[in-house]
Every structure is written in structure tokens, then in C-alpha cells.
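Progress note, sequence design subtask.
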């Protein structure tokens, strides 16, 4: 819970709101690696989102405004192969009109708190991928203990043909009561 939003696990019924948020993030060019070309048809997105909500290898959270709009979305997903099940990737997005109000931090904390339920083992590796020019996301991640581990050079090619590096940021988490 923040002053401006309630944070909760996503439900299948959030699919249209999450899809709308994704379109808004792309329209506002929010430093992501997706464009309008990547948007799925609404019915396809909703079907996949519904499937993801019941998948034990991942958790999806939403931030919901007082007017019940989805204004933030975050995902933690662990790797599938048996030797990588202590590793998870995280992602987060907050609607441009609601940024800088603590919602991104609250969503990220929910992901971190849920990592022991999603991953396997007593020492977890949480990783994020963030464009080298996305300073505000880097600042958020660093404030939560994630460290720059590696740079993937020229990983992103923008629509105007520029190349942008991408960072891998990681944080390790020791778990007292491991999942398995
Ligand atoms: C990155 C993002 C999720 C942050 O969400 P937010 O709700 O604005 O973040 P918060 O208000 O919780 O701020 C948390 C911290 O993030 C950092 N931060 C957020 N916005 C920032 C900005 N404009 N400039 C610098 N640091 C910023 C700060 O460290 C901040 O802590 P502080 O307020 O104590 O200084 C949001 O800007 C966003 O959705 N960006 C577009 C999508 C994106 O880049 N996602 C990550 C892809 S890897």
C-alpha cells in the first residue's frame, strides 16, 4: 500500500488494465525495449495474462488507483531449467502520471518479498535487465541493493538506428525457510 495505490497480486480480470498500461508506457517512450509492434492483440494478451496468473513459477503484481485503474505492474519469473531455479528475473512499470510517488519501490519490494515462494533454494539470485540510459530505473534498483554486474554492449537498437547498451543488475537473497 502506498499513499496513491494499493499493491496486490494480479488477477485474470486485470488483463485489460495491464494491457492498457503497456500501451501507455510505449506511447510515452518510457525507456523500455518494446515498441507498438510488440503489442499483442487484446484477446491474445488477455488469454496469456490469465495463464500467467496461475503459473507457480512467477508472480504478477499490480498497483491500483483509488479509481480502480491499473497504474503499475511488476513481474517476477524464475528460470525453468532445474539447475537455474534459484534465479529469477524482475520487471516493473508505473504509469507516467503516477511516477515518483513510491509505487515503483512498493512493487519492487513485493517482488523481492515473494522471491522465496517462486524460486527454489536457500540462496537466490535476482536479476534485472535495464537500458544503460534508464537512470531512474537504475537508481531505484540500486536503492534496493541491486548491483551492476555486466554490460551487454549495443544490446538495444532504437527505431532510429542508434545502439544502446543494456545492464544486468543483480541482488542475492538468503532464505531461512527455502521453498524446496
Ligand atoms: C523506474 C520506475 C518503475 C520507477 O517507478 P516510480 O514509482 O516512479 O519510483 P518511486 O517513486 O518508487 O521511486 C523509487 C526510487 O527510484 C528512483 N527514481 C525514480 N524516478 C526517478 C527519477 N526521475 N530520477 C532519478 N531517480 C528516480 C529514486 O531512487 C527513487 O527513490 P527516491 O524517491 O527515494 O529518490 C518508473 O520510472 C517507470 O515505470 N519507468 C518506465 C518503465 C521502466 O523504466 N521500467 C524499468 C525497466 S528495466
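Output:
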Amino acid at each position: 500500500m502506498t499513499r496513491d495505490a494499493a499493491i496486490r497480486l494480479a488477477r485474470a480480470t486485470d488483463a485489460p488494465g495491464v494491457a492498457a498500461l503497456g500501451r501507455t508506457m510505449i506511447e510515452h517512450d518510457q525507456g523500455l525495449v518494446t515498441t507498438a509492434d510488440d503489442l499483442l492483440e487484446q484477446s491474445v494478451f488477455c488469454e496469456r495474462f490469465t495463464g500467467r496468473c496461475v503459473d507457480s513459477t512467477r508472480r504478477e503484481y499490480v498497483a491500483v488507483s483509488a479509481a480502480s485503474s491499473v497504474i503499475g505492474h511488476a513481474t517476477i519469473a524464475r528460470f525453468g531449467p532445474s539447475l537455474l531455479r534459484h534465479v529469477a528475473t524482475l520487471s516493473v512499470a508505473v504509469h507516467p502520471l503516477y511516477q515518483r510517488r513510491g509505487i515503483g519501490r512498493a512493487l519492487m519490494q513485493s517482488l523481492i518479498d515473494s522471491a522465496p515462494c517462486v524460486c527454489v533454494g536457500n540462496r537466490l539470485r535476482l536479476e534485472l535487465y535495464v537500458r544503460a540510459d534508464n537512470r531512474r530505473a537504475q537508481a531505484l534498483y540500486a536503492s534496493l541493493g541491486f548491483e551492476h554486474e555486466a554490460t551487454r554492449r549495443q544490446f538495444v537498437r532504437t527505431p532510429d538506428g542508434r545502439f544502446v547498451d543494456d545492464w544486468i543488475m543483480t541482488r542475492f537473497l538468503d532464505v531461512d525457510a527455502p521453498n524446496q
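The domain at 6-174 is CATH 3.40.630.30 (Aminopeptidase). Work on this subtask will continue into the next period as scheduled.
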